[in-house]
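Quick check before the chapter quiz. The format below is the same one you will see on the exam, so make sure you can read both the input and the output lines.
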Amino acid sequence: MELPAEIISAPVKEFSRISGLGESTIWAMIHDGRLESIAIGRRRLVLIESYRRLIEQQRAAPPRDARRNSAVPALGSKRRGAVPSSVTNSERRHLPDN
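Here is the expected output.
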């Protein structure tokens, strides 16, 4: 979604709708400094430019593994107990169940 250039900030709830990120994720990103925000009165406004910078940084970075659990072996890896792909289906039928 393309944001109009004149929008410079948005409340967390509205920014969540605009960006597609969850509110708790946005609060975490504000807390750890990935997103900039300002307080005006009792409102917390996310600075849209900081989101644009974050997107550009991530686009420039090398691709990362999107899996949340790093213990999951990479696709095509040799896992312990996995049947090699060279084993035919008829041979698999005769293997003991784990």
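If your answer matched, good. The longest strand covers residues 43-47.
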